[in-house]
Amino acid sequence: MIHSMNLSEPTVFPDLNKKEDKTADFHRDVINVERLKYKHIRAVLKFPEIDQMHHLMLMVTGLNENDIGELLPEDAAKLTLMLHESLRKFNQPV
């Protein structure tokens, strides 16, 4: 399932724009965020712990290294909080 995350302000993602045949200066108000799945958690464990959240962010947004850097700090924080909430649910006893 894909969710939309509203961005704090319109943001240009150059590589995503090129991939989607948008103009180079196309601004987005939202980005798509895939719901965190077990496959993401398993895949991210191959990275050093310090890099795991970054790689989860890449996986669930589909953004590449260049484009993820275009997120404003508050948007990166919002995405991180969303992921932490999903991970908290994953770690809760059943």
Q: How would you characterize this protein structure?
A:
The chain is α+β, with helices and mostly antiparallel strands and 94 residues long. It has one domain. The chain contains 5 helices and 2 strands, in the order βαβαααα. A two-stranded antiparallel sheet has the order 1-2. The longest helix has 19 residues. 13% of the residues are buried.
In DSSP terms (H or I, runs of 4 or more residues), the helix count works out at 5
Task: Tell me the radius of gyration.
Answer: 14 Å
Supply the helix-strand structural class.
alpha+beta
- The gross shape turns out to be elongated
Low confidence ranges: none
Helix content: 40-55%
- Average pLDDT works out at 94
Q: Tell me the count of domains.
A: 1
N-to-C terminal Cα separation, in Å? 23 Å
Strand content: 15-25%
Count of β-strands: 2
N-to-C order of helices and strands = EHEHHHH
Oligomer: single chain
Largest sheet report: 2 strands, antiparallel
- The largest sheet has its strands arranged as 1-2
